[in-house]
Amino acid sequence: MIGVAEEGCSGEVGMASVRSCTCSPSSSSFFLRKAPSPVRFKLKFRFKINALFGDWGLGNRKNSLSFSSNHQNQFTFNLTDTETVRVSVLSSISDVSAKEWDACAVDATGPNSFNPFLSHAFLSALEHSASAVRETGWMPHHIVVKDQTNNILAVVPLYLKTHSYGEFVFDHSWANAYHSYGYKYYPKLQSCVPFTPVTGSRILLRNTSFKDQIFDIIVSAMKDITANSQLSSLHVTFPSENEWLKLTQKGFLPRIGMQYHWKNRNYKNFDDFLMDMKQSKRKNIRQERKKISAQNLIMKRLRGHEIKARHWDSFYTFYRNTTDNKWGTAHLTREFFHELGSKMGDNVLLVVAEEGDELVAGALNLIGGDTLFGRLWGCLPRSYYPSLHFEACYYQAIEAAIELNLKKVEAGAQGEHKIQRGYLPVTTYSCHYLIDEEFREAIQDFLEREASQVKLVIKLLHDSGPFKEGIV
């Protein structure tokens, strides 16, 4: 949970460790088995040099959706010789009842691993608050699959996008490459939870005897929409590993990334966790925590009815301070936070720091079935409290996870400083379906090189971790 351009506690995936690696290919790698076209040859070079390191690309965040969706928005597929299913594209999640959507989400994740970001309440809050809507470059194109009696068998959070912001999987250099050859990269289709780098199922299937067939039907429908609408590409970001593997088998290009998660090894309390750390790391954490009381700060963890409107107003100020001071964009509106509190209060854990009667900082977490998800952080403008970020985002989250008997804390994207505080690197996934064959080949070449470097970085970081030998 670190505050950089895109978000407070998590930050957009920057792959800082990977940036320190060498990604220049050997000269032999430029020789292809068949004579390259000018597009293909130049793309291979460009992706090798730019894609890891920046080149932030095109696309506008706001008021830029000039694309007119004239593709077919309903498909019929044969499920058996006598049964058919209907796949529809909806322009708002409000067109599906919360009960039906959430039934798909619960079946997809399992009740014990429920992911709150996949809930109707969270996704509808993004739409109703004007955070993820057409005007901000996020046009909802949600997929719904129904049988002949109108029972919903599956749903997919899907968006038509005119930029690559708020995704936490970088493809800006891909957009630049398309543009440099006179192609349009935007709009594109993206299955994700907006502004949320949290792994979870994306194709949300009810538990039926033919759910594997429904999965295949949805993938075919999304590919058809992409092709028929003359879009450049279809992306599925932060899917489950199982989905990622299945989509890779269906022609999607696989990509991996990295985050930092804390694992609950059946700890009884925070000190129990510290005993698994190397002595120097344990000492450092204790010193950091002592700084909080030395600054006369009081930490509180609020849930449900304990979170009042004033807390949300203060947190929005903190959030804006983070985004405004770190070259970011405030994707989320004030209304989003209030709606989140009213709709999902029991799933919200808001950590606040008080100095006297004043709220000075906060960290927003959501509680899932077995995971605490750290999302956003911020503090008062022009304020600095040593170690408060670590306390609010990491140590309070660990204490809460132990107290709530949760298996892990996902602290979001970026931030090698998390490692020394007990958060270890894990692999994240995305997959990408590109229509143009030559661009696809160039991007595939880059992704293979990127994956080898990400795997190496994860191994190196694990090997230099903060835990005693034998603790994994």
Report on the structure:
- There is one protein chain.
- The protein has about 475 residues and is of the alpha+beta class.
- It has a domain at about 260-425: 3-Layer(aba) Sandwich (Aminopeptidase), CATH 3.40.630.
- Helices cover about 35% and strands about 20% of the residues.
- The chain contains 13 helices and 16 strands.
- The protein has helices at about 15-20, 40-50, 100-110, 120-130, 170-180, 210-230, 240-250, 270-275, 280-295, 310-325, 335-345, 390-405, 435-465, and strands at about 75-80, 85-90, 140, 140-145, 150-155, 160, 190, 205, 235, 255-265, 295-305, 350-355, 360-365, 370-380, 410-415, 425-435.
- The protein has an 11-stranded mixed beta sheet with strand order 3-6-7-9-16-10-15-14-13-12-11, sandwiched between helices. The chain has a 5-stranded antiparallel beta sheet with strand order 1-2-4-5-8, sandwiched between helices.
- Helix 4 packs antiparallel against helix 11 (about 335-345) and helix 10 packs across helix 11 (about 335-345).
- Pfam families: FemAB_like (PF04339).
- InterPro entries: Acyl_CoA_acyltransferase, FemAB-like.
